[in-house]
Amino acid sequence: MNDNDRKLGPTLLKADNISLAFGGVKALTDISFEVKEREVLAIIGPNGAGKSSMLNVINGVYHPNAGSVTYKGTVRQQMKPHEAAKQGIARTFQNIALFKGMSVLDNIMTGRTLKMSAGFLAQCLYVGRARNEEIEHRKKVEEIIDFLQIQSIRKTPVGRLPYGLQKRVELGRALAAEPTLLLLDEPMAGMNIEEKEDMSRFILDVNDEFGTTIVLIEHDMGVVMDLSDRIVVLDYGKKIGDGTPAEIRNNKEVIDAYLGVSD
Amino acid sequence: MGFFVEVLLSGLMAGVLYSLVALGFVLIFKASGVFNFAQGAMVLFAALTFVRLLDILKDTFAPITLALIITIAMMIMLAMAIERLVLRPLVNQPGISLFMATLGIAYFLDGFGQTLWGSDIYTLDIGIPKGSIFILESVFEGGVLVAKEDLVATVIAGLLVVTLAIFFQKTRIGRALRAVADDHQAAQSIGIPLNYIWVIVWTVAGLVALVAGVIWGSKLGVQFSLSLIALKALPVLILGGFESVLGAVIGGLIIGAGEKLAEIYIGPYVGGGIEYWFAYMLALGFLMFRPQGLFGEVHIDRV
């Protein structure tokens, strides 16, 4: 937390006055914040505060009604999820979205989709080249499997794994794309303490070793305070706080939002 | 014994054709979770297009090849049109909406095909040998009588099935297809373009429809009833499982053979006509005792 200045780079992602409404329901109102390169930014807030909506805006699932997102210096209003993926944005989902019928290995391999250069057709025709490529990607995937310590379950269909491990596999799939920006939607939901500790360690290691910028949503305050360089607090779709964990801890508005105001 | 084998074989070969139609369903169901009611209409449309082009091009140097290429091009365009006009606007809608949309496609294609190409019964002859031969004469006295065209159809269908199985299980695009089938959102988030995958899978289903249409068409003539064989594919799917290529094949064979054997051996006791309902009764039995089919995936939902 104290080594911020040493580690952070220039601004990677900037949200400017983002507003998003579903019919009459305002999910996000005029949200602005920045994420610097190699930063770990947490978005917190009570249920329904618009945290997931914010992630969905960043990776193009939702298109904001107003405002823009600047990523790597390029301003954009609309983007499709697969285009976001192409530009190095990977993510995990609140409700695990793995390919349940496939093995752990295959799931993580799908994360390499964009790294494969042989075209779809070429891949059917030039068996030799496509095969070499497959081996190369497989190596990378094995590294990720080692990194996440899931060697023993690599052939297991993910549908059979316990929740905590599925979350880990999902992280693996996102990592396989070697993302610049990693969006994690409640990576520790439903985990016990031990699993949370493991997950926290993986997230910090990813940030450390690969220099990946991470934006995460999490409810566990202990985890959030330990992991993040900076915290953005949302409440009813509005930003009510933005600062280091220490600042947020003492922010009156944030405390009110979480504990309720007595008036 | 020789007679039994003969009935069995002719049943199995008819079953191969059921399998082909069912395969088209399975492909689209696997990749998009849509039950494509229009598969039968696609069979009719492909066969009609092919047979009429054959007629138009009959004076050129290679009518069959040319007609085939143009028909394939049309099936690709059809897939693109369906993706653009029907699937894309309905993305993330519940399965039942998409199913209703395919009903619409089915009626449209039936009408469009016949408006474009006429609604007569057309004979289709692409040189599949006709007539029957005796095989296995050393095993059974008098041998077993099989139709040559059934043999050819079996070989073609077999090749197609093997190709598709490899395509789905071994290639990267196959993995992408399975990924899309499992979870649209996740597939998009790792960079798989949904639209592209849908065009591919509807194209492949269109090609399978073409093969099925040409084989059925050269057997029975190209006519409206081709679009109704889709109904025969339903019990095949219930038997084999909606998600299994292998299941579609085995299911088709069981239905084909079961129908013929039941007709011959049980038919006389109940006044015949078993062929028309046997498949559905069998499917009903499966629904009660093994609803996921022989090879379907059992979905365990965590609660």
Structural descriptors:
heterodimer, A: 263 residues, alpha/beta, 11 helices, B: 303 residues, mainly alpha, ABC transporter involved in vitamin B12 uptake, BtuC, two-stranded antiparallel sheet
Structure description:
The complex is a heterodimer of chains A (263) and B (303). Chain A folds into two domains: 1-88 and 179-263, 3-Layer(aba) Sandwich (Rossmann fold), CATH 3.40.50.300; 102-177, no CATH class. Helices cover 40% and strands 24% of the residues of chain A. Chain A is built from eleven helices and ten strands. In chain A, the strands form two sheets. Chain A has a six-stranded mixed β-sheet, sandwiched between helices. Chain A has a four-stranded antiparallel β-sheet with strand order 2-1-4-5, covered by helices on one side. In chain A, a hairpin with a 2-residue loop joins strand 1 (11-22) and strand 2. The longest helix of chain A is centred in the middle third of the chain and has 21 residues, at 127-147. The mean pLDDT of chain A is 85. With 303 residues, chain B is mostly helical. The model of chain B has no long low-confidence stretch (mean pLDDT 84). In chain B, strand 1 and strand 2 form a beta hairpin. Chain B has a single domain (2-289), classed as ABC transporter involved in vitamin B12 uptake, BtuC (Orthogonal Bundle). Chain B contains twelve helices and two strands; from the N terminus they run H-H-H-H-E-E-H-H-H-H-H-H-H-H.
Cα end-to-end separation of chain B: 53 Å
Which architecture of the largest domain in chain A does the CATH hierarchy give at level 2? 3-Layer(aba) Sandwich
Please state how the strands of the largest beta sheet of chain B are arranged side by side. 1-2
Helix content of chain B: over 70%
**In terms of structural class, how would the helical and strand content of chain A be classed?**
alpha/beta
CATH topology name of chain B, in short, is ABC transporter involved in vitamin B12 uptake, BtuC
Broad shape of chain A:
globular
Encode the helix/strand succession of chain A as letters. Answer: HEEEHEEHEHHHHEHEHEEHH
Give the assembly state of these chains: heterodimer
The CATH first-level class of chain B comes to Mainly Alpha
Query: How many independent structural domains of chain B?
Result: 1
Distance between the termini of chain A: 35 Å
Would you identify the regions of chain A where 5 or more consecutive residues have pLDDT less than 50? none
CATH architecture of chain B: Orthogonal Bundle
Computed over alpha carbons, the radius of gyration of chain A is: 19 Å
Number of domains of chain A: 2
